[in-house]
Batch of 4 targets.
Target 1
Amino acid sequence: MANIKEQYETAKQAYSKWGIDVDSVLETLKRVPISIHCWQGDDIGGFEVNRGELSGGIDVTGDYPGKATTPEELRMDLEKALSLIPGKHRVNLHAIYAETNGEVVERDELEPKHFEKWVQWAKENRLGLDFNPTLFSHEKAADGLTLSHPNPEIRKYWINHCIQSRKIGEYFGSELGTPCLTNIWIPDGYKDIPSDRLTPRKRLKDSLDKIFAVEVNEDHNIDAIESKLFGIGSESYVVGSHEFYYGYALRNDKLCLIDTGHFHPTETVSNKISSMLLYSDQLALHVSRPVRWDSDHVVTLDDELREIALEIVRNGALDHVKIGLDFFDASINRVAAWTIGTRNMIKALLYALLTPNDYLMQLQDEGNFTDRLALIEEFKTYPFGAVWDYYCEQMDVPVKESWLEDVKTYEKEVLSKR
Ligand SMILES: C[C@H](O)[C@H](O)[C@@H](O)C(=O)CO
Ligand SMILES: [Mn+2]
């Protein structure tokens, strides 16, 4: 489309006045993988033979028709979404997405072979895979406690599940030639005021020590731990708090995974990235959109998303922050949800790359806060959209909202027939 190219050329000139080389910005953007969570496609159901109800203090609301009910459907839906998203990305799996040929396989007995089809599919689609043990939606997590459980047998079960998960991560990494991020999130906590905060944390620390004592090849598997402030049913106390995991990660050389929905409503993750990167070389994100609580709404291009992207870009941290997504909305078309949220994450990174960050930093050091504010605001209406459209065209994905037609056709021809 000539128009898109013309508008791109005009935009390039506007940005080049500020020393921004838009062509090289797009080269940089192409190389940033986003880890797309598979669980948006089936409302975190998974494919276990003895599937449990969703638990762990998280909730998916809505009953939009057409959710994936088999691994084949989920992969097909992911392929559709990926065809609408510019760039080469990763897919993030949970243990409940194992394929066990109709057999009940306990989570502590899961093995790489149960994920062979996912690996085959990832190879065919040139995707990296990330992984998560699933410590919820299970009878052994029915009271909301897992790795910090007072019962050593229950702790042992979940410890073994996490060890097996790291081996599955190692398998993903070695097969696909790109390390797998294996992230542990547990729901453990209490609804009401605890009478002892320390003992469950001691038990969690001990469980993590046992999990990480088993060696896996770090070239293939990278361990992360995800904190949380509260969940449904754990409003008063969560064992794996931010302080707990931050301390553990620093001392044990693990990655902290920061979920944007896991903090107080006015507490921003964008303000944590620079501090955390002073002390760790790498950190990981679950980008989500909390609306009043950890509601996991689809990510929009809001101020906080742009600020997160700015923090990553202006601090030269694109290779230090592993960007993953974590939202689940069952009230809209699920393929559209993936597409909207992932395109927004990429748009935010593009926006940040098209910002004269060095100059704005210089203005701050000079105490020139007038120019700083004026330029930050003016750049919001620079022709960023023209660059985005050109990028989509170059990457062979639909430009502007035209992807919505693809999703509607897919809904009519595929999803509505489920
Ligand atoms: C399904 C995910 O693992 C889960 O959402 C977790 O990452 C989380 O954020 C829990 O609130
Ligand atoms: Mn998360």
Target 2
Amino acid sequence: MNASPPMNKTLLQVEHLSMKFGGLVAIGDLSFEARRGEITALIGPNGAGKTTVFNCITGFYKPSEGMIRFTGESGSEFLLERMPDFQITAKAKVARTFQNIRLFSGMTLLENLLVAQHNKLMKASGYTIMGLVGLGGYRKASAESVELAKHWLEKADLMDRADDPAGDLPYGAQRRLEIARAMCTGPELLCLDEPAAGLNPKESLALNELLMDIKNNTGTSILLIEHDMSVVMQISDHIVVLEYGRKISDGDPAHVRSDPRVIAAYLGVDDEEVETVLTDVGDENVLERLDGHPDVAHGPSTSASMLAGPISDTIDHNDGERVTVSKGASKAALVEAQIASAAARKPATRKAASTKPAASKTAGGAAKATAGISNRLDAPRGGKADNLTRIKGIGSVNEKKLNDHGIYHFDQIAAWKKADVVAAEAYLAFDGRIAREEWISQAKLLAKGKETEFSRRVDAGKVATSHTSAPAKPAAGKRGGRK
Ligand SMILES: Nc1ncnc2c1ncn2[C@@H]1O[C@H](COP(=O)(O)OP(=O)(O)OP(=O)(O)O)[C@@H](O)[C@H]1O
């Protein structure tokens, strides 16, 4: 591998990529590039189309439209959308890991890394028994494979577990083993699908170190899907943000984290609330419903890739699921429209317009707006915050945002005045949702230790985007919301 990248920095160029499943547009006219020697992150809310982009790049799906140009280190070009997945791995040298770990759990760590080099070894054997049982070429390749496996076990801090079954490793170590296995194939591009999912902070740190080591000391570039922003913001050189299959932002971490479209996309759409948002948008004409079956012509290939694992894992998404997509559901698009209309307004009329809370949905506007919430606290009372996700409309992401700005308890929300609602809505980029979803009346009940139908579902662990730290039932007459 070569640690000094050649002059042409563009490694991967995605142009006008679209992927449709029946009536569902999972990716729409997406263009971006990943540069050689960099870590490029693909982020976006659930269902934004990130894994579908990976599946198109790695040949699991054949895109409905568009081009994926890969320029290898030697200068050779590949059009990945035209190649079957096993050739993408072998010729273009693109390796990947999956959202769900796919190791051979009964094999040792070392064996897992040797199996990954199976193609190289078979080639060295000349595909003959004689080659396998003793001719020099195979023996040399075999010794090299063991050395390479040891090198990556060392790098992944797993050497002392080399002879243990992979299934015995803790979760974070299994994630690193997967990456080590992919690195044993000598990739030019390593595609990682949510490598930090389920890791504790210590494991996350070890992952960051491994990825930075790969970036700094090998010629391998990384394309990363990740929800963990501490990983994304720390190690990425370049971030592409998707929402509903459309690119809403593209730039370095500083640019992306302050882009109002990104803030809106992340804060405005909780999984469970997509349907609510669609109803709010109220435009029946823009609804496209998936009638249950993916478009088989473009769907997953019957893979020959040894690392692919069971193909059924990639097609489970629509199992019994009703998928609904609406342009109007895009919070980023709403922000874009607001920015465009604000720009179109003359300075004289801008002042009048700015009395509307929704007009301040920029990062700066949001920061000012939170300063305007009147009853903020420095820390939760008694050191323990209420589970705000028991309020319908507040998911874990928005709970964290509220906590970050001094709102921890039901009674704080219950006491919100109109100006506080305006400030909170501007900060969370919500259009009238706080009033519509009756956060204040829910908060009043919860603060008195009463339950709502929704809070009962949260406490029973039935709401995916909420957490279930079911609070102890307060004694009668005591204010349950106060800690
Ligand atoms: N094989 C398939 N058949 C039908 N629909 C699919 C298929 N694969 C993906 N989709 C749909 O395409 C959309 C994008 O899904 P995708 O998994 O790419 O999103 P994502 O951004 O990776 O989401 P997450 O962060 O939850 O993993 C979703 O609406 C999903 O249900």
Target 3
Amino acid sequence: MTAIEVNGLRKSHRGFEAVKGVSFEVGEGQIFALLGRNGAGKTTTIEVLAGFQRADGGTVRVLGLDPYADRTALRRRTGIMLQEAGFFPDLTVAQTVDTWRGLIAAPRPRDEALELAGLAGKRGTKVRQLSGGEKRRLDLALALLGRPDVLFLDEPTTGMDPEARRATWGVVRDLAGQGTTILLTTHYLEEAQRLASTMAIMDAGEVVAAGDMAETLAAQAGRVAFRMPAHVHPADLPLPVTLEGGTAVCRAEDPDLAAQTLLTWAAERGLRLAGLEVRTATLEDLFLESAR
Ligand SMILES: Nc1ncnc2c1ncn2[C@@H]1O[C@H](COP(=O)(O)OP(=O)(O)OP(=O)(O)O)[C@@H](O)[C@H]1O
């Protein structure tokens, strides 16, 4: 079942077209990463999907409903974590969660939400005393209170330390495993690559690459890099390379095979390929190539 459908979405802010005909789909229980540089239009897209803004063009459906027209019905079934949360700084973490619980039908117990977000030890701490990463965790706890079927996470791990980030990935995976559909944005491409099964890269309001994460990356060229041996010219090598400083970089569909070819060539000449690195394409490679 498709949980989120976006077809030809257009949205302008005071005459500036931030989203220019974007289309993608997210299946139920999938983790989908919406990627792109600053200002690409990701938050605008999420705000339309969450029913905060009306689309100027195209169609958008979340759980089969129009997020703007049916926002009351959808609000009960969606959770959202935006980039800037409006907390009351003098409330404690527990008071903040309790206040939000009062606004939600059949909310999750407070301690369960805090436990899930890794904030159980901070119940009595005032919001203004939380670190940036802890505030993101509080945001996550609030987004989870309504046991949403669809969760929108706008840069959920910004400011978190590596351990907290990994813990949040665990929470996101568990939720998806239980059937929650998750759309997230992030500037941490490794995070997107590890978490999401599908993705779209936006640039200047348009989708420039999209699809299944594993398939899309497998179709990208991999990379073999090594320090250029002394007195060797790139034209002497058996495969084309580009030079990045003193490092020769060879892009190849099958990087293992390319590395073998290069190593055999080097061995026959008694040369060493120092600092040899062989890897398949990463999301960062794809991102840098797509979002130019
Ligand atoms: N309310 C608004 N009024 C005017 N322009 C806006 C408004 N909201 C967003 N924009 C502009 O629309 C464009 C897209 O913004 P958006 O916040 O959707 O990008 P983003 O991809 O989420 O970026 P980031 O990664 O920096 O969060 C930007 O150029 C932004 O300046």
Target 4
Amino acid sequence: MDTWHIFLGSILLAIPLILLLRGRKGGRLRRGATLADRPALPSLKLLGENNNTITRASYGPVWRLLRRNLVSETLHPSRVRLFAPARSWVRRVLAEKLRDESSSGGAAVVETFQYAMFCLLVLMCFGERLDEATVRAIAAAQRELLIYRSRKMAIFSFLPSVTKHLYRDRLQTVHAMQRRKKDLFVPLINARREYRKLGGEPKKESAFEHSYVDALLDIKLPEEGNRPLTDDEMINLCSEFLDAGTDTTSTGLQWIMAELVKNPAIQEKLYKEISATKGDDQDEVSEEDVHKMPYLKAVVLEGLRKHPPAHFVLPHKAAADMEIGGYLIPKGATMNFMVAEMSRDEREWEKPTEFVPERFLPGGAGEAVDVTGNREIKMMPFGVGRRICAGLGIAMLHLEYFVANMVREFEWQEVAGEEVDFAEKNEFTVVMKKPLRPRLVLKTTISTRLLKRDLKIAQAASSGITPRGTSLQFTTTSREGWRNRVKPHNNTKEDVIVITPIASQKFSLKDTRTTKI
Ligand code: HEM
């Protein structure tokens, strides 16, 4: 989704939306399709790509088909529910990695957030839980291409017939990157073709019932003789899905957690809401729980208000001449909106530089704010109108679910020398210039709960396996082969406990037992 940065190289008419709204509040402009188109991207042809992605497609039938396909086939609430086990798995992966990080002082959490979001989106995209090396290879391929395109491709917007010769080496580099990505994606798409052909048989533990690729395989383009998507088009759509849903969410998580580190009283208040909604004996804050937590939602909204991951939306194109706040916008002009300026505007928000989730609670000034912009627009972290983020619902769910579970599991503390700094840096999204490095302290209630459970398992396993009183270190390995140092709480029947005596006890390998429970 390199178009995020293309606005820098194109004619940018950045207009504070407040101005726009003052002129047109509730007017035709907001409801109509006047700004629903996207400007063309001249470099696409040189890259051998077309406009058949949701973000790039012109406002028309192809865009409608592709967008409807994503929203109603993969991101429809009934489909999103099918991925609940995947989210739960990623939550455990995230918690385990954070625990590892936490033992080494200030934890570098950003990379962990990014990896976790990739695990989840890759699974939703290809319908399979992939190993860490493959997920990381996909993330690296996506990132290198995204960065290279955003930094080096803008030049081809100017006189492409000349620049393609002058900068041939850049085109060669980007083609090599595309090939690397193709090598990773095509086998996964083919595996899905095969899986569908066999009607989902044999049942693979790691395969999910539905994936974004499945929905793409069903598409026929009516405008083009009802042909299916080509592999290259599928790869671009998968790429778009991954780019759109990973960095945006991990950046959002980083800013929200940074605010919670900086504001321990808010973190405590959130923790109390979580504890009151969910009992200590439960494994996780479930998705049903998060819907019952108004303060959690307020924290996430306040995070998105103060730190929208994208400070601009994707470029829009004016479909007709229009006048906004006294400015003439000619037909065909590229427009963008200053998302961050808007939600930090002192005329609209009281003390906008402060982090005050309470403003979104009943009685607060932001109580009636609607992020979809259907009533009025005071903030638009997901854009508004027909090109509003197609993943808004699932993005909010991911933010709420992961924030709640991370706060439940750890106390997030500021570390001396690694103080939270809210300076910004422009990457694909607007990230923290000095990455967040908090101290993560396991919540005592959870540690106690684990201790008791550990003890039970140690006793159950001690007969005939280890001498009484031996301290045990154990990991759990699920049937699919992924390992957790701490057993998942709610899945005891399915797990195999691998009991590994601590090295100092001088046990040989044969003393290690696996026990089904
Ligand atoms: C916190 C997370 C997210 C944020 C802040 C965010 C923000 C945005 C923004 C600002 C836009 C541009 C809107 C415009 O041009 O007016 C956008 C577009 C889009 N987003 Fe998101 N997004 C997030 C997560 C996701 C997720 C999880 C997905 C899908 C899995 C997704 C899919 C899309 C798509 C397909 C578009 C293009 C819409 C179109 O052109 O019709 N986004 N998003």
